[in-house]
Amino acid sequence: AQSVTQPDIHITVSEGASLELRCNYSYGATPYLFWYVQSPGQGLQLLLKYFSGDTLVQGIKGFEAEFKRSQSSFNLRKPSVHWSDAAEYFCAVGARNTGTASKLTFGTGTRLQVTL
Amino acid sequence: EAQVTQNPRYLITVTGKKLTVTCSQNMNHEYMSWYRQDPGLGLRQIYYSMNVEVTDKGDVPEGYKVSRKEKRNFPLILESPSPNQTSLYFCASSKAGSMQETQYFGPGTRLLVL
Questions:
Q1: Contact: B96, A90; criterion CB under 8 Å
Q2: What distance in Å separates the CA atoms of residue B12 and residue A87, rounded to the nearest whole number?
Q3: Cβ contact B108–A42 (<8 Å)
Q4: B100: helix, coil or strand?
Q5: pLDDT digits (tens, 9 = 90+) for A19-75
């Protein structure tokens, strides 16, 4: 069974500073990997996803993530954080078996606070 | 506009009083799913449906029921709610058969069981 670990529960960064949110996964093969963002009172919005190919993935809102197979990681980055980026971020892994083709396993989330 | 809608958005109820949370999508998606979100636990899947009349348990199905009589609707039923079902619930949908299809989430339903 797959699992996801987000080691940072809460991160605070200053507006304009760079950001990296960590995500480690456990899965027997190359997984599908996702980052979602949840703004206060909102549902989850997909930021980016990795399936195969280029290990550096570009997403919406200026975010990117890099898949590192050797480290079982899929860290999310942004070079310059905006106050509107304050939200909760979830990493998720999806299995490639077709039996539960769309089952996502989520991490526990990282809450990002942005100071002005 | 493509969307997943949930009703109600907020609900306060008492232990044992049956309730239904509705979920509807307008994207003709085959796959629909229910998650609950609890602090420190992230999102956990309750039930999912690959298509009409096809449903299966997720990771935390105890105390919940679902049905899929129409493609667009996937209601979540709590026959006898208990306080440990106080949570934030999300419905999601996507095209079935491929993890490469994006899952779209509803806005959430916050449930308090007294």
A1: no
A2: 26
A3: yes
A4: coil
A5: 999 999 998 777 889 999 999 878 899 999 998 888 999 999 999 999 999 999 999
In the predicted structure, residue B99 carries a pLDDT above the cut 80 = no
Our CA-based measurement puts residue A82 at a distance from the nearest CA of chain B, in whole angstroms, of 23
Token pair of A72, please?
């079982």
Nearest alpha-carbon partner for A35 in A71, A69, A61: A61
> Is it the case that residue A1 has pLDDT exceeding 80?
no
> Given a cut of 80, is residue A80 above it in pLDDT?
yes
Helix-, strand-, coil-residue percentages of chain B, each rounded to 5 = 5, 50, 45
| B43, B90 Cβ separation under 8 angstroms | yes
Q: From the list B90, B96, B97, which residue is nearest A44 (CB)? A: B90
Among B41, B96, B105, select the one facing A102 at the smallest CB separation.
Answer: B96
User: Mind telling me how many Å the CA of B103 is from chain A's nearest CA?
Assistant: 8
**Which residue reads 């975010």 in tokens?**
A63
pLDDT digits (tens, 9 = 90+) for B9-28: 999 999 999 999 999 999 99
B103 CB neighbours in chain A (<8 A) are 46, 102, 104
Can you tell me the distance from the alpha carbon of B75 to that of A18, in angstroms, rounded to the nearest whole number?
Answer: 42
Return the structure tokens found at A49.
Answer: 């996803």
Tally C-beta pairs within 8 A across A and B: 66
